Amino acid sequence: MDLMTPVLTQDELHDWIVHFTGLVVPRESVCPHHHPPFEYLRSSYFEPSVDQIIWAPRGGGKTSLAAVATLLDLLHKPGIAVRILGGSLDQSLKMWESLLGFIHDPRIGPQILSDPRSVARRLRLCNGSSAAVLTQSQRSVRGVRVQKVRCDEVELFERTIWSAAQLTTRSVQIGNRRINGSIEAISTLHKPYGLMRELVDQSASSGMKVTRWCLLDVLERCPPERDCQTCALYPECRGIAKKKCEGFFGIDDAIRMKQRVSEQVWQAEMLCQRPSQDGQVFPMLNTSIHCRTECPFEITRDCEWWLAIDFGFSAPLVCLWIIRKGDQSYVVDEHVARQMTLFEHLVVIESRPWRVRRVACDPSGATRNEQTARSNIDFLRARGYSVKTRPSRIVDGVELIRSALKSATGQIRLFIHPRCQHLIRAMEEYRYREPTSEIPLKDGVHDHAVDALRYFYVNTQSTSLVRKPY
Predict the structure, then answer these.
(1) Which of 47, 130, 315, 397 is 20–30 Å from 460 (CA)?
(2) Are 50 and 183 in contact (CB under 8 A)?
């Protein structure tokens, strides 16, 4: 097997990695709907036509495998330019140090470098390939023109830097081989409102390929003498580590880690399930329970229909259609748009099949417009709407929503149609300003839909449950 000769098949690629790096990368996934880590290297090496998202656990080998992918690019694609961009300089250097570790291994050797002495943050191979480390700054990223950018721990990226990185890649034809310009987003996914969550959610529309594995997909084979019933990993493993696991992550290390962290952190950062709910205002929201395509109660004549409105022009106006029966509520539909007058919004609202005349909205809607001398509330009432605008504190309205999602006795009283994607996303990502704060963050993105729902609850609940604002 030759170090510098490109391989042609997946088996050859696997054998090359084992021979020259000593890494045995799992080729079969353990969990349903996950991918084996080798799928990332295979896809990266054989020139994908799309960008990639690599969603993997802490300690799951993603940084080392990205270093292997970089090594293969440099050795087998003469003239390629690769850049490593981490969520911090320390993160960038971790991948860089892994890359240098492979290069200085006797199986490869620094003789492949054009200048073995100059490898602090940039290196060039004798075949014309090059790699370098970028820092999290506009100055570092802008002006870069390369074929590959590997972004490690995207969850830590500044969004402006991520946006700038999107314009850095260029495809090239080198000899008879085309090298596609591509970006790889490599990270855990532990923030419900983070960049990685956004990339994964948009992958279907953006065309980015998602490769995902969890702890079980890289866990070592469990010896037969270990007792499953007393093992801390049994709830997620269920004995599968004795049958399918062929990874590199030590079982004892995994057990110690699980004992140190909360269930939320373990599920998010090691099992790659849902993001951690730390800081979320509505951690009890469960789309499998609260989102229903059919109304959970019979729609009869005693049901109340409401419009819940949060006014806006530069910021979006949000209108929710809500059916209320007893103490249960069902959000049927939503309208979200900006840069429209209230009259234009009403044209859209009144075109929907439901004729609704009850409105719950923000008391600030009583402010008169400078040009018309009429307020939004006056305008609604003039068109025949019955408008309620009870003032309240944000925390009180939030608590009413939380109670409707799940009361202290376990009752579920709020349901949402899946078509209300803006509201669902807003509730999932609505968070507190800081860990110790009781006031949610008004980020201009997620607060408007929640505010509309809050106005509905404030204006339809008993006055004893709503305190006067400060």
Answers:
(1) 315
(2) no
Residues 201 and 346 both lie in one domain:
no
Interatomic CA distance for residues 212 and 69, integer angstroms: 16
> Rounded distance, CA 271 to CA 324, Å?
38
pTM: 0.71
Q: How far apart are the first and last CA of the chain?
A: 75
Which pLDDT does position 468 carry in this prediction?
53
What residues form DSSP beta bridges with 280? 431
- Do 254 and 155 lie in a common domain? no
The residue among 44, 365, 362 whose CA lies nearest residue 209 is 44
Number of residues that make up the chain: 470
For residue 244, the SS3 value is: coil
Torsion of CA 258, 264, 265, 269, to 10 degrees: 100
CA 230-233-234 angle, to 5 degrees, is: 60
CA gyration radius for the chain?
Answer: 27
Question: Residue 49 domain-assigned?
Answer: yes
The closest of 151, 66, 145 to 102, measured between CA atoms, is 66
Query: Got the DSSP string for 202-216?
Result: THHHH-PEEEE--HH
Q: What is the pLDDT of residues 117-151, one digit of tens each?
A: 888 999 999 999 999 999 999 999 998 999 999 99
Q: Locate tokens 């929201």: which residue?
A: 285
Report yes or no on 16 lying in a domain. yes
Distance CA 150, CA 83 (A): 6
Q: What angle do CA 86, 91, 93 make, to 5 degrees?
A: 100
What is the residue-wise DSSP string for 91-147?
HHHHHHHHHHHHHTSTTT-GGGBS-TT--SSEEEBTTS-EEEEE-SSHHHHTT--BS
In this prediction, residue 470 carries a pLDDT of 41
Burial of 302 from C-beta contacts in 10 A (0-12 / 13-18 / 19+)? exposed
**175: confidence class by pLDDT, cuts 50, 70, 90:** confident
Q: Provide the β-strand partners of residue 334.
A: 320
The answer to whether residues 166 and 296 belong to one domain is no
Helix (H, G, I), strand (E, B) or coil at 175: coil
Q: Note whether 196 and 229 are same-domain residues.
A: no
